[in-house]
Amino acid sequence: MTTLRIAWRNLWRNPRRTALALAAIGLSVGLVLAYDAMLRAVGDWMVETITGPLLGHVQVHAADWRKDRAMDRTLRRAGALCDAIARDPDVGSVTARVYAPALAALSDEGFAVMVIGVDRARETGAARLLAPDAPAIEGKRVLMGRALAETMNAHAGATIAIVGQGADGSLANDLYTVAGLIETPMDLVNRQGVIMALGEAQALFSMDDEAHEIVIHARDAARVDAVAARLAALPILEGADVLDWKRLQPEMVSMLGVVEMAWLLILVLVFVAAAAGVANTMLMATFERTREFGMLLALGLRPTRIVAMIVAESVALGAVGAAAGAALGIALVAATHDSGVDFATLTGQGTSAISAMGIRWSLRMYPSLAAVDLVGAVGAVVMTSMLASAWPALRVGRLQPARALRS
Q: Which site in 30, 245, 264, 320 is 20 to 30 Å from 132, CA atoms measured?
């Protein structure tokens, strides 16, 4: 404790230099935490946009359905399958879907559409396929993607004919009322989608309690691998394809890897800057105090004690600077966490969303920090400061008392 007190007092023998070093370290840590929070927001944004509306965290299909999407490759006893999956404690929600290519016509001209049968109650909410204010679709009522409606010149209240092929090869056709026009994060739905109730789709396409896809959302997105593995082992799902979103969208995993590498690169640059600042400050301090160190050595103080004092000064400098930076980073993130950061406003663009990879991506992101980010940043700066003290400490440890007193 005596060494620590002396080290702290020595730091403020030149308050301007110490304050500048602390400001540089604190600003670097604060900005890197803000950058980390934004990268975490980007990663969460990408995963939520991919998994929320259509993909889910885990999907179940009949074997080979993803290869040709044939109408007759269905999951039998879809209701029982959903009930068995829902019993897993890590499953947050589970819903079945029907996908059927068809023709839709308002008059004489037909348009290629994708009929999607959904359970409206389970598909409604934040980061889901349907918004809470979407019209009801019970009975012969359907929702139509707004872009498709504009192409067909359809409107809410219009009656359309849908013609397709049932799962058993029979002709599927009926008349439906357009209950409303919707815009979803999925371009497929916006441009080609006709959404109807799951039961109605099963009846139209001769699918008795069958589905093409079961979509599962996990309670914790970080545990999807374990959830997928457990579900795949269920006897009732034997022979079905059970895939988590990482296997369904491997290119998205690669993009998230790029985001992580960007974070590591910035972290390394900040630590190099912190190391340079601490090393420079401590070298100047040791050169200024060479005679003082020589006198202490001449009085019998052990070199290890002086080395410990130099290391303690470096660690204290790094720790205080990192703590100040952590406070700055937390404040920056707290100021934007609830309202989010709208990149459309920052870049001066008029639109608040972009379309890519068949998905409509919102440009508003919500920065957030995890405890591991704070511990990692502060701990790394402290370790970097300790390493940066090696050069000044080595120089002091090799001082000869007589030569030091004459310098």
A: 245
